[in-house]
Amino acid sequence: MGRTVVVLGGGISGLAACYHLSRAPSLPKVILVEGTERLGGWIRSVRGPDGAIFELGPRGIRPAGALGARTLLMVSELGLDSEVLPVRGDHPAAQNRFLYVGGALYPLPTGLRGLLRPSPPFSKPLFWAGLRELTKPRGKEPDETVHSFTQRRLGPEVASLAMDSLCRGVFAGNSRELSIRSCFPSLFQAEQTHRSVLLGLLLGAGQSPQPDSALVRQARAEHWSQWSLRGGLEMLPQSLDAHLTSRGVSVLRGQPVCGLSLQADGRWKVSLGDSSLDADHVISAVPASVLSELLPAEAAPLADVLRTITAVSVAVVNLQYRGARLPVQGFGHLVPSSEDPGVLGIVYDSVAFPEQDGTPPGLRVTVMLGGSWLQTLEANGCALSQELFQQQAQEAAATQLGLKEPPSHCLVHLHKNCIPQYTLGHWQKLESAKQFLAAQKLPLTLAGASYEGVAVNDCIESGRQAAVSVLRTEPNS
Ligand SMILES: Cc1cc2nc3c(=O)[nH]c(=O)nc-3n(C[C@H](O)[C@H](O)[C@H](O)COP(=O)(O)OP(=O)(O)OC[C@H]3O[C@@H](n4cnc5c(N)ncnc54)[C@H](O)[C@@H]3O)c2cc1C
Q1: Residue 130 belongs to what H/E stretch?
Q2: How far does residue 53's CA lie from ligand 1's centre (Å)?
Q3: Cα of 308 from ligand 1 centre, angstroms
Q4: Neighbours of 51 (CB within 10 A)
Q5: Which stretches make up the Amine oxidase domain (predicted)?
Q6: Residue 116: which residues within 8 A CB-CB, separation 6 or more?
């Protein structure tokens, strides 16, 4: 009898794990268990009454590098090429990103000329910070916060304006707590290998073999900065769902896993409330903190480590305006914590993807709220009402973008614990988890945003790697 692999969690990581398992020549029996009625996890696209698309989670996927290319390959294999909406390299959404500082929007400098010129809000041309970086000695610590690393190498302004904002934009997190080694591994590695981050980035990490397809070549030739899908990014999990079903994967929805136990024969019993599943191997693609509550007593040391990988919440407010114009054209802007502790940034969705504006077209922007403001509200037990978030978001759009008229359409969602935080020493947590799994020979593989990257590409790669490691132990593989 073939082996049974149960995958926990139908977000993009669990779906990607099933996708790669389902393509194996000797396919094990694969069962995907999702706790809610919908697949996709944080990837969720909603259509407005005029046909406009509102992304409640991710809104763009980067095509760069081997991971970006692998995702595009999967998109082609799913037959989605004609649905792809690219942001080409010469488009304003690819070229312009802004910082909102001191009540004004400033373009982030790009290219050599941009670095040589004075570029407020930075007091000196960034060229000088770069020159200083080249002369700095290599750090000696095995890990460092993003803030301390950037301050040491590029100076206090780059640390407190640029990297502070970037950490808020990507992780909704605090650069003074997040780990450089885990959040920006390429910067950490560049310093380790070449002593200088700039030198390391210029010389590159060496070309890893990249998958090739017509779509990958097109993305490279047109210098895409990101892409979406015509009907929203949720088309990706929906297509994966259809593909998996056609390949014989059982997809169980509305079945939250409530416990895992090890049986005498070494197999898992996966408890689903009223029923249970037997599994030879489990791939967990649920958040680390969720898995920590499911593990049996024998795996208590692993559960203790996973419990410490926490996540922060983000309120996503999608706004649509009729007859309004943005003061600038670009991907969007980020807001450093010193400027506004609550507003992480605003994405100008209509600039990157005007095809999703609806009929007649309306201007769409998304305000992301979170950070210390939201943490303080949560800690004080304040009522986190839709009205509060809508009011904060409208105020931000009015002050920061001049969108003073009331929006024609508004969606408010508070995503609780949606972005894992790789805080200082995160790599040690991963090491202990790996060591425990290897020493105990537990038939369990970890995937998902909690571990080695939160971007959609990272999550898909974590699912792929989980599938590869399971297939390696298949008797007939
Ligand atoms: C607001 C926001 C904006 C983002 N923007 C971008 C972006 O623009 N670009 C980008 O690349 N990335 C972005 N990201 C990051 C990216 O979307 C996520 O990191 C990624 O989608 C996480 O996927 P996952 O499958 O690992 O986890 P999840 O999406 O959390 O999926 C986990 C799944 O497990 C299920 N589950 C939980 N408990 C159980 C249980 N007990 N039993 C069964 N199932 C269970 C959940 O219901 C869920 O479906 C964004 C994230 C957020 C929140």
Answers
A1: helix 126-135
A2: 19
A3: 18
A4: 12
A5: 12-471
A6: 125, 127
Ligand 1 probe mutation, 454, 458, 460, 461, most atoms within 8 A of CB: 454
> What is the SS3 assignment for 340?
coil
Distance (Å, whole) CA 387 – CA 23: 47
By CB atoms closer than 10 A (0-12, 13-18, 19+), residue 246 is exposed
CA distance 62 to 79: 19
Residue type present at position 346: I
The Å distance, Cα 41 to ligand 1 centre, comes to 4
What letter does residue 83 receive in the DSSP assignment? G
> Contact at 8 Å (CB) between 413 and 314?
no
CA 21 to chain CA mean position, Å:
23
Rounded Cα distance between 144 and 227, Å, is 32
CA distance 420 to 66: 23
What pLDDT, in 10s, does the model give residues 64-111? Answer: 999 999 999 999 999 999 999 999 999 999 999 999 999 999 999 877
pLDDT tens digits for 5-25? 999 999 999 999 999 999 998
Q: Which two tokens stand for residue 214?
A: 């017509």
Cα–chain-centroid distance for residue 460?
10
Please write the tens of the pLDDT for every residue from 381-438: 888 999 999 999 999 999 999 999 999 999 999 999 999 999 999 999 999 999 999 9
Helices (H), ranges, 184-234: 185-194, 197-203, 214-221
Count of alpha carbons within 13 angstroms of residue 38, beta-carbon side: 10
> What does pTM read for this prediction?
0.97
CB contact at 8 A, 406 and 307:
no
Distance (Å, whole) CA 140 – CA 191:
10
Q: How many CB atoms lie within 10 A of CB 190?
A: 21
- Is residue 13 lining ligand 1, measured as CB closer than 6 Å? yes
